[in-house]
Amino acid sequence: MKKTRILVIGFLFLLSYLVVLGRSFQLQVLRSETLRGRAERQQRKFTLSTPRRGRIFDREGQELAVSVAVDSIYAQPRKIFDRSAVARQLSPILRIPRRELLNKLSPERPFVWLSRRISPSQSLKIKALDLKGIGFIQENKRFYPNRTLAGHLLGFAGLDSQGLEGLELKYDHLIKGEPELFLTERDARGHTIFPRGGNLLRSSEGNDLYLTIHKGIQYIAERELKKAVLATRAKSGVVVVTNPLTGEVLALALQPEFNPNCFWRYQPSLWRNRAITDSFEPGSTFKVFLLAAAIEEAVAQPKDLFFCEKGSYEIGGNTIHDPREYGWLSLEQIIHFSSNIGASKIGEKLGKEKFYQYITAFGFGEKTGIDLPGEISGLVRPPRSWFQMGVRTISFGQGISLSPLQLISALGAIANGGRLMRPFVVKKIIDPRGTVIHTTKPRVIRRVISPKTARIVTKILTGVVKKNATGWRAALKGYEVAGKTGTAQKADIINGGYSEDRLLGSFMGFVPAKEPELAILVIIDEPQGKANGGLVAAPVFKRIAEKTLLILGAPPTTQITDFRLQIADLKSKI
User: Fold this and answer.
1) Sign of the torsion angle spanned by Cα atoms 466, 550, 247, 270
2) pLDDT tens digits, residue range 187-210?
3) Which residues are catalytic?
4) Could you give the residue ranges of the DSSP H alpha helices within 260-403?
5) Number of domains in the chain
6) Angle at 278 between CA 428 and CA 362, to 5 degrees
7) Which of 156, 176, 211 is the last residue of a domain?
């Protein structure tokens, strides 16, 4: 009996041993990989840091936006012996209240960010303190070395390296890059523990953008626009400079300006690229496209006469006014002197259906397709919804809204012989290895008018910039300019109709007239005092054009006394 008991107990011990051995074999051999992975997931954690964004250059390779490596500071409170002393030492350096730092250094927290992307001087001061429990991780910060230059065009990226405005937003998926992947550990409660210095496993830079923008031309456009807005005490201003042959945007300037390095200090309304996001009634600049349509349809010829009613034209209880009492004017004189009455009679003769056909052909009422976010299409009503005065008022730029970019793109179609080009700002994209992965080529959207009509319109527009015409202040020594002034009343939203004292002065033109290299639009919004476009905007066009032609090395197209003296004079003004 006793022997039997011993055998049973021995068998049970053997059975238990076999069970333990089998379970050990299962855990250590059969399921080892599965359990090892589970343990690593519980003890380790992958943390993403901001990627290094690709750079943005101008057409000459000048840097407009870069990413710089900066330190972010963190704390591991459980390793800090005297939290109050640490908070007292860090507070003046980080410019964070001591009480706020003490809250962050709560002992319940195994890890906490104290400040992200601090300045190099702050980093050096803190590292010199050699504080236990305080560590640094290197991150990337977006930096715009030219401060406000091209700010509305570039936009900006946020704290997480996400593009938020402008090109940074539009091309975010291409320039953002792959995020930096840090391997960290977890404690028994699952809290993250950062090893000192971090453990970088993977990262890659984003692609670089090369723009059509010329840094020098952009600087000139911004400087001259700012001077004009301040001098006229205007509300705002816009300048767009393009190559009418290709659709490339050479400069895009707005006032008021903003600095994308500290975008949070500005009202969000100032971030907006109003050259593409806002619309306005163009006023007399729109007569250019009425002129082109009338000549293309053979409705009128340059020497055809129209009676301009001595400055006041009443139709159906509505009155159209001219700034002066004109009698008989030819078609070209109507453009030179910017007669609203004459334009309305041309529009009436052309007819609303035909006029609408050309308005849409020039690209009004649809987006230009530029590679920037937030573009609007403007407002062009179909002819069936035009009021009784519709064709007449639209003839001189009232009752239609468009963006500045649409206006200068349409003018480019006249400058280049009748082809509407798609505007663009990104010339090429290059990956981190230096390989060109995309090149933007000029693209014709459609032919709007014939080359013959474009030449006739150009010749008439050169008369606008001659003595006694509205745009004489835009004339350049040595170059023939084709252009048109505009002075538009702004709509009175509260009382209805149009405001008498809230005006918009503009000038658009291209130069040299016969072989254009530049098309420039200048808009001054609500200038104080005399506000007509020939007075406030044409001189800005002149100053931008003469300096830009010098940068481009465009030779004079008209005879001047001494070209060397002209070049020296222009250089002295830059």
Assistant:
1) negative
2) 555 455 555 444 444 557 889 999
3) 284
4) 274-277, 287-296, 331-337, 340-350, 352-361, 390-395
5) 2
6) 70
7) 211
